[in-house]
Amino acid sequence: MARKITYQQAINEALDQEMTRDPSVIVMGEDVAGGAGAPGEEDSWGGVLGVTKGLYAKHPGRVLDTPISESGYIGAAVGAACNGMRPVAELMFIDFMGVCFDQIFNQAAKFRYMFGGKAKTPVVIRAMYGAGFRAAAQHSQCLYNIFTHIPGLKVVLPSNPYDAKGLLIQSIRDNDPVIFLEHKALYTMEGDVPEESYIVPFGEAAVVQEGDDVTIVAFGRMVNYAKDAGASLRKKGVQCEIIDPRTTSPMDFDTILESVERTGRLVIVDESHPRCSMASDVSGFIAQEAFRALKAPIQMVTAPHVPVPFAASLEDLYIPSPARIEEAVMRVKEYR
Amino acid sequence: MSSSLTREGLLQAYRTMRTIREFEERLHVDFATGEIPGFVHLYAGEEASATGICMHLNRDDYIASTHRGHGHCIAKGVDPVGMMAEIWGKRTGTCKGKGGSMHIADLDVGMLGANGIVGGGGPLICGTALASKLRGSNNVGVCFFGDGASNQGTIFEAMNLAAVWKLPVIFVGENNGYAEATSSNFSVACENIADRASAFGMPGVITDGFDFFAVHEAAGEAIKRAREGGGPTLLEVKLSRYYGHFEGDQQTYRAPGEVQKLRETKDCLMQFARRVTSRGELSMAELEAIDVEVKTLIDASVVKAKADPLPLPEDLMADVYVSY
Q1: Nearest-CA distance from A259 to chain B in Å?
Q2: Which fold would CATH assign to domain A2-194?
C-alpha cells in the first residue's frame, strides 16, 4: 500500500528491506551509524543527514562505520563484492570521489571485462550530489557525467521518492557496480511510495508529463524544475513532454528519440556544467539520430562552466531555474 | 631453523619456484623477439616470496597482486598455460586476452588480480577479508605490494582499516630495492617498510626473500594469527628482481654486476637446493626431474600460446556488464 514518505525515508526503507531479505547486503561508510568507539550513543548520526538512521540496531554487525579513508573503504566494498557480499558503501558527498576514484573506475568498473567475464562486482556506491545548500565548490557538484563516461559503471539519479526506493532496490540486486546519486535538496521531498518491496528497472525513462510541442529531458532534481516550468507553460498553451531518464548508464535514448521525432523541439536540463555533460551527450545523440526531425536548434539549460559559488546571490544564479527552462522552451517553440 | 614441511611440501615448493623462474626466464627471451604485445614486468629472483607465502593459503583465501604478478598467480594456483596465452593476447588466455600481463586474475582460485595501479590492491583485499570475517570463515587475504606502493596512500589507508576492523589480512611488502628506476633507499623515508607497522598498531616483521624457509616461517606465523582472529600483519620481504622494471629497461640505475652477484651468491632456488640436498631431504635427481618437467610444461605453454586464436571481433563488446 502506498503512503506518503520522503525521499530520505524511501532510501532508508529500501536499504532496510534489502538487508532483511539478503544477509549479504551490508552498509558501510563514514558515520553511517556514527559514534563508533565514542563514549556516547551508538547510531548517533545514522549518516551525516540521518539517511541510514536505525539500520544499525535492526541489522547488527552489518552497518559498519569506517575511518575517513575513502580509498580504503570504497576499495574494501569493491573487494567484498568480489567475495560474495553486496555492499552499499556511502561516499557521503560525491565530490569526495576525488580521493577514491581509482578504486571506482580502475578497479570496480574494469574487473568484469579485464578479467574475461569471470568477475562479478555487485557494489553500490551511494552519494549526495548537487547545489543549493550554500556548501560551495567542494560539496555541491553533480559529477554524474564523469561516471557515465566509464564503461562498466551504472549510474542512477532518482528524482522522486518512488524512484529512489525502486531504483535503490534494483541497484542492490544488480550484479554490476552502481553509482547511486541522491540530490540533497530532494531528501525532504514527499511522494507516494508503496510499503512493499519493488524495483524500478534501469534504462527505462519515465515520461513525467506528456505533450506534443516541446520535449524536455531533465536529470535528477532538474526533473522537478522542468515540471514547474511545464505547468506554467501549459497555462500559456505550450504542451511539453518531460522525460526523466532516471539512469544515465544505461540510458534510455529510445524514449527521447521517439519524443523528439514527434515534437521536433528539444530542451535539455542538466544541473552540471555544460561541457562533456549529460546535456551535450543527449544533444549530440539527437543531432546525429534525429537531425531531420528538428525544427529548432537544441537548447541546453545547464550551470555555467564555473565551480559552484558560495554566496547565495551567486549560487542562485548558478543553478538552472524553472524560469530559465521556460525561456529555453519558448526559444525553441518560437524559432523560425 | 626448523621446517614444518613434509617431503611433498618441499617438492611442491621447489616445483612452484622453478615454474615461476622458468616462466619468467622464457618470457625474457620471447619478449625480446617483439612478438609479445604490450609490456611485461618479470618476477624472476623473487620466487621464494610468493611461494613461501602462498603455500599457507587455501583456494578460498584471496590474494591481491601487483603489476609484477606472474609469480603470485602461479603460486596461488593459476594455470601457467592459460597465463602464457593471456600474455600472448590470445582468446584462450586466463582473461580471454582482455587483461594481459598486468591484469591476470582468476577468482576461482582466489587470485583477485594483478593490478596496473600501484597500491591498488590494498583496499580490495580488506574487502575480501571483511567478507570472510562477516561470514565467520577463517579465510585470510594477502596483499602483495612493492616498495613503490609502500608509499601510496591506499596502502596506508588499507593498513589502518585492516587494523581498525581487525581484519585477517597480511600485507606483504616485497622490497626489491627499486620502484621503477628509483631506489627505496631514496623513496622510503624510514629504514624499513616494516617499521611502519607500529603506526597502525600491527606487528611488523622483516624476512629474507632469498630464503624460502625464512619467508615460509614468517608468513606461517602471520597467517596463523590472522586465521585465529589476531588481526593484520605487515611482513616486509627483502629481495631483488633479476630483470628491469619492465622488459627493455636497460637498468642503468643499478650497480654493475649487481644482479650477477645475487644470482651467484643468494639465489633462492640455489639456496633451497643446497639446503634440502645437504640435509638429505631431497635428492639432486629429484630436483632435476622437476626442472625437466617444468621446462616441458613451459615450452608447451609457449607453443600452445603461439598457435592459439586471437580474440574475435565479437569479443570486443562482451563482458562489460553482467547485464546492460
Answers
A1: 23
A2: Rossmann fold (3.40.50)
Cβ B142 vs Cβ B125: under 8 Å: yes
User: CATH number for the domain including B169?
Assistant: 3.40.50.970
B127/A62 touch (CB, cutoff 8 Å), yes or no: no
Residue A65, φ and ψ in degrees, nearest 5: -70, 145
Could you tell me if residue B319 is inside a domain?
no
Residue A69 corresponds to which amino acid?
Answer: S
Q: Is the Cβ of B317 closer than 8 Å to some Cβ of chain A?
A: no
**B 110-149: CB under 8 A from A:** 112-113, 115-117, 120, 122-132, 134-135, 141
What is the domain range of residue B166?
7-305
- The domain segmentation of chain A, as residue ranges, is 2-194, 206-334
The answer to whether A177 and A155 have CB atoms below 8 angstroms apart is no
Backbone angles phi, psi at B148, to 5 degrees: -65, -50
Helix ranges (DSSP H) in chain B: 7-31, 47-54, 70-76, 80-87, 121-134, 153-164, 184-187, 212-227, 258-265, 268-278, 284-307
Q: Which CATH class is domain A206-334?
A: alpha beta
Supply the pTM of this predicted model: 0.96
Residues of A in contact with B316 (CB under 8 A): none
What's the CA angle centered on A41, arms A168 and A66, to 5 degrees? 50
Listed by number, the residues of chain B in 77-116 with a beta carbon closer than 8 Å to a beta carbon of chain A are 93-99, 103, 105-108, 112-113, 115-116
Chain B closest CA to A117's CA: distance in Å?
5
A317: enclosing H helix or E strand: helix A312-318
Interface predicted TM-score (ipTM): 0.95
Residues of B in contact with A76 (CB under 8 A): 123-124, 126-127, 130, 158, 161
- Residues B133-176: tens digit of each pLDDT: 999 999 999 999 999 999 999 999 999 999 999 999 999 999 99
Q: Does residue B183 sit within a domain?
A: yes
Nearest-5° Cα angle at B263, B258 to B264 = 100
- Specify if B311 maps to a domain: no
Helices (H), strands (E): how many in chain A? 12, 14
Q: Are B216 and B52 in contact (CB under 8 A)?
A: yes
Provide the annotated active-site residues of A.
139
The candidate with the shortest Cα–Cα distance to A147, out of A206, A113, A114, A105, is A105
Q: Which residues of B touch A69 (CB under 8 A)?
A: 157, 160-161
Count how many domains chain B has: 1
**Per-residue CA distances from B1 to B5, B9, B38, B271 (Å):** 12, 16, 43, 14
Nearest-CA residue of chain B relative to A66?
B161
Question: What gap in Å lies between CA A1 and CA A148, rounded to an integer?
Answer: 34
Residue B324 inside a domain? The answer is no
- Long-range Cβ contacts of B295-298 (<8 Å, 24+ apart): B295/B22, B297/B19, B297/B22, B297/B80, B297/B81, B298/B19, B298/B22, B298/B23, B298/B26, B298/B80, B298/B84
B55-104 pLDDT tens trace: 999 999 999 999 999 999 999 999 999 999 999 999 999 999 999 999 99
- Condensed to tens digits (0 to 9), the pLDDT of residues B214-255 reads 999 999 999 999 999 999 999 999 999 999 999 999 999 999
Burial B253-284 (b: 16+ CB within 10 A, else e): ebeeeebeebeeebbbbebbbebbeeeeebee
* Cα–Cα distance, B262 to B268 (Å, whole number): 10
Residue B89: its chain A contacts at CB < 8 A?
A: none
